[in-house]
Amino acid sequence: MLKWSIATVSMGGTLEAKLAAAARAGFRSVEIFENDLTFFSGSPRDVRSMAGNLGLEIIAFQPMRDFEGMPEPQRTRNLERAKRKFDLMAELGTSLLCVCSNVADNAIGDPARAAEDLGALADLALQRGFRVGYEALAWGKYVHDWMQAYDVVQRANRPNLGIVLDSFHICARKNPIAPLAEIKPEHIALVQLADAPGIVMDPMSLSRHHRCFPAQGDFPLTEYLEAILRTGYRGPISLEIFNDQFRGAPATVIARDGMRSLQITAEKLEDNRKVVGQPPITASAALPPPAKIGGIEFIEFATSSHESEALTALLEGLGFTLVARHRSKDVDLYRQNDINIVVNREQDGFAHSFYLVHGTSVCALTLRFDDARRALERANALAATTYFGRVGPGEAVIPAVGGVENSLIYFVDDTPKAKSNWDQDFIFEGDATPKGQLERFDHLSNVVRRSEFLSWILFYKAILGFRDEPQVELADPYGAFFSRVISSPDGSVRIPLNIAEGGSTGVSRFIDSSGGGGIQQIALSTHDLFAFVEAARERGVRFLDIPDNYYDDIEARYDLPADTLDRMRELKILYDRTATGEFFHIYTTMFEDRFFFEVLERRNYDLFGAANTPIRLAAQTREQDLAQQQKAMFEY
Ligand code: MG
Fold this sequence. Notes:
The structure is a single chain. The chain has 636 residues and is of the alpha/beta class. It has three domains: 3-275, TIM Barrel (Alpha-Beta Barrel), CATH 3.20.20.150; 287-436, 2,3-Dihydroxybiphenyl 1,2-Dioxygenase, domain 1 (Roll); 437-636, 2,3-Dihydroxybiphenyl 1,2-Dioxygenase, domain 1 (Roll). The chain contains 22 helices and 26 strands. The strands form three sheets. Strands 14-15-16-13-9-12-11-10-17 form a nine-stranded mixed beta sheet. Strands 18, 19, 20, 21, 22, 23, 24, 25 and 26 form a nine-stranded mixed beta sheet that branches. It has an eight-stranded parallel barrel with strand order 1-2-3-4-5-6-7-8, surrounded by six helices. Helix 3 crosses helix 4 and helix 5 packs across helix 6 (146-156). The chain starts with a strand and ends with a helix. The structure holds magnesium ion (MG). Magnesium ion is lined by residues 135, 166, 192, 240.
């Protein structure tokens, strides 16, 4: 059975906090990074007892740098240095020393000499009952591929010397993975696991700042682990992540994410083994498989009695009808075809707390599952925070998990019976299923804090079984932001997650005005956008002003019929096209600098109109700047 581990360098804070977080997340072993020990105020013996009390085994101490292939007198000095490390390891209670391939300019590029030096080190270690692991750094001076490191290890041929395999170096260098399966298991000292985004960058910068947990990046880690398991290796597999954002986050969150990523990595491995009839190999308990998502049942706005007027006017302008009022709460249901929007004006409870922190905004999202109970069991197994809201007598209990910025994601069954929950909680008046021009939720853009971006990607993928698309960068008049679309396997729920690098981009301003991340854009679909916009304008909805230049550009780029283009220009409708389809869309003006609606018509088009995002951002910026100027004049 496999032993999951985490390197202390993956987390931020004090060594005490890191070890406690690792233990709390369910780890039973850790690698101690030398700096963590150097910065620790107690002795290595204290670390040993602290780890022991938390039930943590220290599987390795690292790194020993620039060791092999050094000219004299450094060579002799390095062996002396190693003896001191062994003393320290004895106190620490660990038996494996990890040595990284040499990066020094004056190193000697001779594998025989490297083997001789590592052999001498291994012989010294053997006297103390220790082992040595040798790892090829992707930017090593002479040894940078695992094949070279393995060659050195085989040449040295010592029983206590093995190779350290780190997925980062192997994948960053695009080393062959399948031949890993040929390594003799007794020659593997340790296996390290790290993912990274598939961006072009020198390996050292990528390694030091952008490593991430499995499932947060693009490396072929399942293939990597499968090759290693084929060797027969059953020792520790350790997360070793260098990431500035991770070190800036609470250690408990990072340790939890680390374990979560390993749980779904194990799930993938076991699923693949099952297909070929192999027995289970990981110690982790099997997760309940993700439940099938069937769409968004409703979104809920937290608001107050005085702010709700503008919100409900906007909803009615968009064609929604107030169809029901809650039996016991100040909560209304607005509906149009398959779109449910709940407006919550309660004076206490979850929505009210959310309103106090974030203003009028979306406080909850409700997803339909083929088996909501199993979805919740999976969330629990992956350490999600679960909630059961306060309800009145006889009202439905809807379980929820914590989402971005303490919003809620409710889980409901996608069955006709579950639909009756509405009747249980709400009193309907008139037509309960009013038609309208808007048909369904198309997507919801979610702004997240940069420091939490990877955490939320992992949340949606692990807990809800979402898939992600590659990250894209988009221009904003005041900077840039990054977006990664995550979606349910059936495509019924699609959420672009957006982060900004700071400054005053639209994404950053959303974070400022909303007191954190959240849903910024609610995109709804229609089958006739032109007719919808005309009717909505009649009802007083204000749409984002788009400059004439945009339409001149569209006219030059596409051979649109003149009357279509004239109507787009008049109504402020945006346009995009692919080889197979067309896309028409429009944005409402911002509600209190916080959120806006997009209404779109897809004609065999599956993207998000990203080509028009800079136009939208520029128009929103202009609108916000104008509003601020007017406010300043008024205050003056
Ligand atoms: Mg490593």
